[in-house]
Specification:
Layout (H helix, E strand, L loop, with lengths): L10 H12 L1 H13 L2 H7 L7 H7 L4 H14 L2 E4 L2 E4 L1 H8 L1 H14 L6 H7 L25 H25 L5 E5 L5 H9 L4 E6 L1 H14 L5 E5 L15 E5 L7 H14 L5 E6 L8 H18 L8 H10 L2 E10 L3 E8 L1
Parallel strand pairs: 3-4, 3-6, 4-5, 6-7
Antiparallel strand pairs: 1-2, 7-9, 8-9
Helix pairs in contact: 2-5, 4-5, 7-9, 9-10, 12-14
The structure holds S-adenosylmethionine (SAM).
């Protein structure tokens, strides 16, 4: 990683970027309104020729005033251009409208994070997810995942699955080169990785570990796919140190899981993995480390996602810097035997063994 080491901006670029931050919540909502009211789409469809305010506002069923303030904001934000009273879309506007990753991130920011984030400073001071009350009354977001109000529920799952889905197939070949017989899928969520493992190897067995409410969802998905005879369930609150894992599996899979916990909690989980895994077994950790991203914007997205953990998820976890994380692996008595960076959009796969 060779970003975040130099300030390359001119003073003029810097003061401009400071204004983007100063007005960030407003420009975020304006961009979302331009997208959701269909204004970006109408402008995009007009192509290079462009479209006037007078033509747009009846099309999108807004008042002339409403469409005008949004279109003008779109110019300043950089989503639109105007020449001879005709609006055309910019490349940034195109991505806000059409790019799946941008849409997933924007909907997650709005539907899951936006309201709660007003109390981010309190979360930092208290080490508690003070913004979570905007969504429901749970100690952490995980107790509420399967019963989140809409649209937060869909936006949370689209965000989670967008990043992990793309990496599962790539990671699977690394897991199965060790021919595991029994995998513990810890933090199994809706059972997506387990389903892929079932399809990959007709002999492999998987035990899913997650909170009871979450395992109900996974169980339905696995029963529907007809894999019940090779799958076991181990409901667990992993935050309770005394809750141990089933012993003897030769592979443990944890994807986008350990980032849900504080440093001390991660060490406790990894020590229990150490205790549970068979002598020659492997522990597969798939995480998104901000320092392992190919592009600065990838690191930026993860640094912002960390604050979702601070304010909404649990108040004490994050998307880690791999240097911080690797010390925890070591502290738990494990060693990394292989590491594959840039798996899918943003993941690193660490393959660990007992020291
Ligand atoms: C971010 S999701 C990752 C899901 C999945 N492994 C993936 O890659 O998409 C984190 C998972 O950890 C589970 N989890 C969070 N806190 C937990 C706890 N205290 N005990 C057990 N599972 C927990 C959640 O229910 C959720 O399924």
């Amino acid at each position: 990683m060779n970003f975040f080491t130099k300030d390359n901006k001119t003073a003029f670029e810097a003061i401009s970027s400071a204004q983007f931050i100063a007005f960030a919540p407003i420009l975020f909502q304006a961009s979302k309104a331009l997208r959701d009211f269909g204004i970006l789409e109408a402008v995009s469809k007009s192509g290079e020729e462009g479209i006037t305010l007078q033509e747009i506002y009846p099309q999108v069923k807004l008042s002339e005033y409403g469409a005008r303030v949004l279109l003008e904001a779109g110019l300043g934000i950089g989503l639109l251009l105007r020449n001879n009273d005709k609006y055309t879309i910019t490349k940034t506007g195109h991505f806000i409208l059409n790019d799946r990753m941008t849409r997933v991130n924007m909907d997650f920011s709005n539907d899951v994070c936006y309201e709660g984030m007003f109390s981010l400073a309190d979360s930092i001071k208290e080490g508690k997810p003070t913004g979570l009350k905007a969504l429901g009354d749970w100690p952490t977001i995980y107790e509420g995942l399967s019963i989140l109000p809409q649209p937060a529920k869909d936006s949370w799952f689209h965000f989670d699955h967008y990043y992990s889905d793309g990496s599962f197939d790539l990671a699977l070949k690394h897991v199965f080169k060790y021919h595991p017989k029994h995998i513990l899928d810890i933090g199994a969520n809706t059972g997506k990785f387990t389903l892929k493992s079932m399809a990959k190897d007709p002999d492999v067995k998987v035990t899913l570990l997650d909170l009871p409410i979450q395992l109900n969802v996974a169980r339905q998905n696995i029963e529907k796919a007809g894999y019940s005879d090779r799958v076991g369930y181990h409901p667990i609150d992993i935050l309770i140190d005394a809750n141990r894992f089933p012993k003897g599996a030769d592979a443990i899979w944890m994807s986008q899981f350990l980032d849900c916990f504080s440093e001390d909690e991660i060490v406790s989980i990894l020590k229990r993995c150490h205790e549970a895994i068979s002598d020659d077994g492997h522990i597969f950790i798939m995480e998104t480390f901000w320092d392992k991203q190919k592009f600065e914007v990838g690191a930026f997205s993860l640094q912002m996602t960390s604050l979702y953990f601070t304010n909404l998820a649990n108040g004490n976890s994050q998307m880690y810097d791999s240097a911080v994380f690797n010390k925890l692996i070591d502290k738990a008595g494990l060693k990394i035997v292989e590491q594959i960076d840039q798996v899918g959009v943003s993941h690193t796969l660490q393959i660990c063994k007992r020291k």
